[in-house]
Amino acid sequence: MRIFIKFLIVIFLLSSCSNKDKLAVPPATKQEALIAYQEGIEALMAGQYFIASEKFDQSEALLPQTEWAAKSALMSAYCFYNMDFYDEAVLNLKRFTKLYPADKNNDYANYLIAIIYYDQILDEEKDIEPLIIAKKTIEDFLKKYPNTDYAIDLKFKMDLVINQMAAKEISVARYYMNNEKWIPAINRLKIIVEKYDKTIFVEEALFRLVEIYYTIGLENEAKAAAALLGYNYNSSEWYERSYKVLNTSYQPLKKSKENEEQKLINRIKNIFIK
């Protein structure tokens, strides 16, 4: 990903340098700003990101509300990204979009914000918040810039994010199943079937519903879930396994004491059969 981002920024640098010829012979202030900008580029290419950021900030301050100021602001934010100072990078990128809303590189700035949030996704089983933020940021980008080259990359990343969110739900559902908490498990599995039906986890979710429904005595619901699984994924391993569940020789999931289990089944039946 960093290689791809660096490729984009090199293209940006080349286009920035080509615009220098469009400026008239600058007065001392403009000349100083352009020197600072050029020094920033040199430091950036040398991997001296902190120094580069300072030079770009200096250039922006000398030429406020100009094309060069916008370029400098964006380049400074990019330097923070390269240093893995994600909070500072996002802050500066958002500042760029507010100060220079008409700049042609706003799509890139918003793309980089989405990439930063995406890069901070670590472990969906421990913390789902980065997933939620990344998903929202990518969705916002795709609505605003649907036909850009950046959108192609973010659509792919959106699929990965949604699969990770489904992975979180299936993980929680398995936990509830292992602890015989059937209702919470059913609720989590239904989220996958209803919201994440295009993910790789929907087949397992339907199978787990078959398992749970059969175990708690809701055979019609078990058959309905199996039918849905078979209709959409008739060559799936999970569909084959659902046959075994509905077979009379199948051993239901582990149960607790008989009396307590029967009470649980009756309560669940009262919830689902009304």
Explain this structure to me?
The protein is an all-alpha fold. It folds into two domains: 119 residues, Alpha Horseshoe (Serine Threonine Protein Phosphatase 5, Tetratricopeptide repeat); 105 residues, Serine Threonine Protein Phosphatase 5, Tetratricopeptide repeat. The chain is 75% helix and 0% strand. The protein is built from 13 helices and no strands. The longest helix is centred in the middle third of the chain and has 30 residues. The protein starts with a helix and ends with a helix. 34% of the residues are buried.
Beta-sheet strand percentage?
under 5%
The CATH class of the largest domain is identified as Mainly Alpha
The end-to-end distance, rounded to whole angstroms, is: 53 Å
> What number of domains?
2
The largest sheet, given as strand count, sense and whether it forms a barrel, is:
none
| pLDDT < 50 runs, ≥5 residues | 17-25
| Number of E-state strands | 0
Question: Helix-strand pattern, N to C?
Answer: HHHHHHHHHHHHH
* CATH homologous superfamily label of the largest domain: Tetratricopeptide repeat domain
What is the topology?
Blueprint: H1 2-18, H2 28-45, H3 49-62, H4 67-82, H5 86-99, H6 106-119, H7 129-144, H8 149-178, H9 182-195, H10 202-215, H11 219-232, H12 237-246, H13 258-272
Helix pairs in contact: 2-3, 3-4, 4-5, 5-6, 6-7, 6-8, 7-8, 8-9, 9-10, 10-11, 10-12, 11-12
